[in-house]
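debug: dumping io for the single-chain case to check the tokenizer round-trip. Nothing else runs in this session.
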Amino acid sequence: MVKGFIFFRDGKIPFVIENYRMELFTDDSLLDDFCKEYNFKENYILHGQCFDIGIRGRKATFLVENSIGSTCYLRCYTINMFDKDEEYDSIGLQSPSLDEVFRCEYEYIDMVRAGINLAIEPKVVYKVPFGMNDQKYELEFRIGHDNRLGLLEDLDRKCELILPLHTNEIQECYDITNVLHRLAMFMTSHAEVPFKRITLYKQGLKAGWFYCPLISEDIVGGHGGFFHEFDVMKYIPKILNNIALDSGNKITQSIPLGHLGDFNSMYTPQRFVEQVMAFEYYNLGKRTSEKKLEFTGKSKTDFALDLIYKCSDYCIPDYIKSGLKWLNDQRVLE
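debug: decoded output
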């Protein structure tokens, strides 16, 4: 539970947050004025202070999805390291799911065997450029620690995804988190809560933290074996660029790849159709020969993606065609 207060007009309104639901409470008439102004309002920002550690408040920013009366439902919020305005210049995301996609375990072992000391400074393993909201980004996947930080370093972290920020807005942090969550979902098929920790940086030093429902300290991986021979730079840039075309809650520009699904929609007709459309996204053509389908000991993921990219004469399988015909006959999507 997080406690604090928000700034409203010339006063302060106390709150408590639990499960990303902010409850405001006070006997002051200020709360009545707040309810009149923000009742049933959607997608707005509040500023305030949090007292999550000790008695000293720290500056906080809240992105509210919607509010009803004195209850605000939060999309996310940020807490600064100190009670002052901070100009963040990058965001770091720790994700066991995406660590596996970027082959963290295998890259880590290869670097250690090569005699690289990862306790001195982080090493950039991959740089993936992509565009989002008319801005250019470059995602860096890093392994290791920065010894200059001393006890301020997160010694539990082995890998981290670092992205530069173009603004100091909480909305940009939320959009980046959304896009990388969908990347994790597409690559692993079940990563509803993919992040362990999200940190805001200023010139390489921690300046704050980002919190949203996609974060859990208890999250673990379990799919690393699927990406043993995965060619990251061959597939991830194109997939990420497509997913990043839509950072909101709807697909309007990107090719549907099933990356908006969850456990409840995993086997629905809509999910089925989205996966079929993923075949079209990779420009599949006519049927391939049996020789091209030969499995040569690669990981299943790499083999499947190789098949999609290299076999230009591959067509949608008969069982998918028959499934679509059945869906059309049943009219379940109307």
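debug: round-trip ok. Confidence is low (pLDDT under 50) at residues 279-301.
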